[in-house]
């Protein structure tokens, strides 16, 4: 197969005939010159003519009748391929502001990524079983990785399930798409408000009815959930985004009781960030309290490894497995086997646990630095810093959240406010404006300066020196 | 953070209190013993009591009132976590028959995969720009890979587009899901019949109306398409699956003319397998004939690299880009950056072209071996072997397709028939039973034996020796 750029003699001939046919120099079913006659008159090899005619046949311009010759095919108003030069337009030049400091929640400190281990494991896997690495296997994901995840979530999240209930996917959103396919688009959904915009838009994009449920101090309001028509609710009990609320046990039980009232009701537990809890032992997942196959559990390695790694997993209740089985006709596993086998070894050989412990210490250190700065300001308060990779920063000062964010921008700091994640009200926290401080991606050396600048931007004063 | 398995003193105390609260030994809002009193009576450190109480607070079992003490939280009928041992059930033991030979269309010959190149490129990429590799970038995929794909499809498929029109995804199905989100679920779809079951089930799973359009000798019947109510049609013009029909130019133009009749009409061109054409130059993609932003082009590296690699791409018409932009709120790129950067280098440094050429020669060699065997049988016929990684095997013998497949199974050969891909009729080819011979995954040394056995299974006779 030759690329279009290399023009050979037979291709020139082919192009000429194609043009003549397109320009109606030949009519439909008209006979072309015989190979020999044409070769003689052009003083070229009959094989060259043959090659050109073959290509015209392959593309359907002409047809051959045995022992008779070559004829032009039936024609249809032809729209020729206009070979205008491509102008390099719309080259996606970023129009974003350049910031000195970015408090973002979706980036991590990549300097800690165990690159050499990952490269070594890649080499090892590629040197091994080719068939397992390269050909399609189980749509749920590779069994030994699912077994490793089963062990991990039993020890760290109190979840006791069978590997057959684990589905591996390319991220939380991709797994949510499968959940929607399983649970259908007829029953109404509910999500926490405020929350990640992704979940909301994903549901809306699936033409699903979505209720927005407000939060109280314990997280999602069960009363509001009851009042909505929702059958399926998406929650972040370990560390609500963005408020950081850890759902207490009574609310978890209320939520499970809500689900137990109808066969159609399900809870989707998004356990993002749960690996990072800075004191005590981990809080068991909501799934671990579920006795009635009501909780679909979703987690990702995005926050623990790297956002660009795209490996996530979910736990399906056993009673939903038959419905999943009927879907795998079109849902193949989207994660490359190579990646899955490396992840398996990364977990199995203890690298993952060590990596998480290392990152947890690193993030705790970052938190301590920020806490020391914030403690200097009597009117600034940290909320929800016990877990996860962000906390809330509230100030006791009459200022609009949006004004604070704009002032930060003028000081070249990127930051978002809680109001921006509120889907319902277009409100603006005045009494206690609250920013979301994602600190995981900011270099350690920048933290102090960045926080002082952020608080100074609205004229906050430090304690008197004592 | 300690895993559940390591029981420390504070955790024992925490577990004890949790049990007492769950068993209603403590009522809601009842006060717990003070830290000092409890430490004294148990002869343990007050710090241990503090740690246990902190964990109970974190999980919402108790709350603290400053300068007063610790109280049991509001209670809800509690469903305790029953820590029964997991029985290893449903370990997914394959119940499949074991076959000596498999004529499958979705596997490839992995012995040719350039593992050492891939491992080297992985090491190189990991040694380089960490931020680019590990953090989330453009939802369409990494720009330099999209630029490389743009160059590739211009040279090999005659497609002239801007990199901003390229979207990278984890496979044909995942990209089809995005297409459905873009075009919506209201307009009816049409697909070729017979065809891949995946596309049909994917559309059905999206609650979309699907018409099945029969084929004639030129592929999809335009007359039937006109008679259906469909607005969006999915086609495989380069190599129809499973019939292998290459759509001729007049049918391509008819199809484009159909699309041009209404603003709502679109064509989805699935260009799978198009890299493997064994003679002449490649046939330009349908997309290259399109003047009116009517064709969405999808292709994948699955067949060229390895099924488990999960990198595919599509070309969106410019007028659909704004709609896509509104969706990226929840559709992040599902392909890991690492994989994308390796693929970029694999293409940019010329490995990809060399790999395809090598594979093309290898597959042509396999085809020749099979052709030599089939040519020995006067009643057996190869169809559609000019391109792709499968062909049709038809026999002039009165036998049911299903009987042939069953007889093959008895000879430990896996093979499928054309009827199995027909979504409409439950028919069974009797006059000319036709099998689908996917040869890409079968070891070269097995081909001769496998084909002789397959043809012998229905008692087909070889030519008299001449």
List the helices and strands and how they pair.
The structure is a homodimer of 466-residue chains.
Chain A (H helix, E strand, L loop, with lengths): L8 H14 L12 H8 L3 H13 L3 E4 L3 E4 L28 E2 L12 H12 L3 H5 L8 H15 L8 E4 L2 H12 L5 E5 L3 H9 L4 E7 L2 E2 L1 H6 L4 E4 L13 H12 L5 E5 L24 E6 L11 E4 L5 H7 L9 H12 L2 H24 L5 E4 L6 E6 L5 H10 L2 E2 L1 E2 L16 E5 L8 H10 L10
Parallel strand pairs in A: 3-14, 5-6, 5-8, 8-9, 9-10
Antiparallel strand pairs in A: 1-2, 4-11, 6-7, 10-11, 12-13, 13-16, 15-16
Helix pairs in contact in A: 1-3, 2-3, 4-12, 6-12, 7-8, 13-15
Provide the descriptors you would attach to this structure in a database record.
disordered N terminus, 15 helices, 8-stranded mixed β-sheet, 466 residues, 4-stranded antiparallel β-sheet, homodimer
Q: How would you describe this protein?
A:
The structure is a homodimer of 466-residue chains. By secondary structure, chain A is of the alpha/beta class. Chain A contains 15 helices and 16 strands. In chain A, strand 6 and strand 7 form a beta hairpin. In chain A, helix 1 packs across helix 3, helix 2 packs across helix 3 (46-58) and helix 4 crosses helix 12 (337-348). Residues 1-6 and 78-95 of chain A have low confidence and may be disordered.
């Amino acid at each position: 197969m030759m690329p279009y750029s290399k023009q050979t003699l037979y291709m020139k001939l082919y192009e000429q005939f194609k043009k003549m046919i397109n320009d109606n120099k030949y009519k439909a079913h008209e006979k072309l010159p015989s190979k020999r006659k044409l070769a003689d008159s052009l003083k070229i090899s009959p094989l060259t003519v043959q090659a050109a005619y073959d290509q015209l046949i392959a593309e359907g311009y002409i047809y051959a009748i045995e022992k008779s010759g070559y004829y032009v095919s039936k024609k249809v108003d032809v729209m020729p391929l206009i070979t205008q030069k491509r102008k390099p337009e719309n080259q996606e030049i970023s129009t974003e502001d350049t910031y000195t400091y970015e408090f973002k929640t979706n980036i991590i400190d990549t300097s800690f990524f165990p690159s050499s281990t990952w490269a070594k494991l890649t080499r090892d896997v590629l040197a091994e079983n080719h068939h397992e690495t390269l050909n399609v296997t189980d749509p749920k994901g590779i069994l030994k990785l699912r077994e490793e995840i089963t062990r991990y979530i039993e020890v760290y999240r109190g979840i006791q399930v069978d590997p057959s209930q684990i589905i591996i996917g390319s991220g939380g959103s991709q797994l949510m798409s499968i959940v929607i396919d399983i649970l259908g688009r007829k029953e109404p959904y509910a999500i926490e408000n405020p929350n990640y915009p992704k979940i909301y838009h994903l549901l809306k994009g699936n033409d699903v009815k979505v209720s927005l449920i407000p939060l109280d101090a314990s997280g999602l309001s069960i009363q509001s959930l009851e009042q909505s028509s929702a059958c399926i609710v998406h929650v972040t009990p370990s560390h609500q985004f963005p408020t950081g609320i850890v759902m207490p046990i009574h609310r978890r039980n209320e939520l499970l009781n809500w689900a137990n009232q109808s066969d159609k009701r399900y809870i989707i537990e998004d356990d993002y960030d749960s690996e990072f809890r800075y004191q005590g032992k981990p809080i068991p997942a909501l799934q671990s309290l579920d006795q009635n196959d009501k909780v679909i559990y979703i987690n990702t390695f995005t926050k623990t490894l790297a956002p660009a790694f795209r490996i996530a997993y979910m736990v399906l209740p056993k009673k939903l497995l038959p419905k999943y089985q009927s879907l795998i006709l079109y849902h193949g596993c989207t994660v490359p086997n190579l990646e899955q086998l490396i992840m398996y070894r990364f977990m199995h050989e203890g690298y993952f646990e060590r990596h998480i412990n290392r990152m947890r210490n690193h993030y705790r250190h970052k938190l301590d630095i920020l806490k020391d700065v914030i403690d200097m300001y009597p009117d600034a308060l940290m909320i929800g810093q016990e877990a996860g990779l962000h906390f809330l920063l509230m100030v006791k000062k009459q200022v609009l959240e949006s004004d604070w964010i704009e002032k930060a921008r003028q000081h070249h700091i990127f930051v978002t406010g809680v109001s921006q994640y509120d889907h319902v009200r277009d409100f603006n926290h005045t009494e206690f404006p609250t920013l979301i401080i994602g600190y995981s991606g900011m270099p350690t050396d920048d933290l102090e300066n960045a926080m002082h600048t952020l608080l100074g931007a609205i004229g906050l004063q430090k304690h008197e020196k004592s």
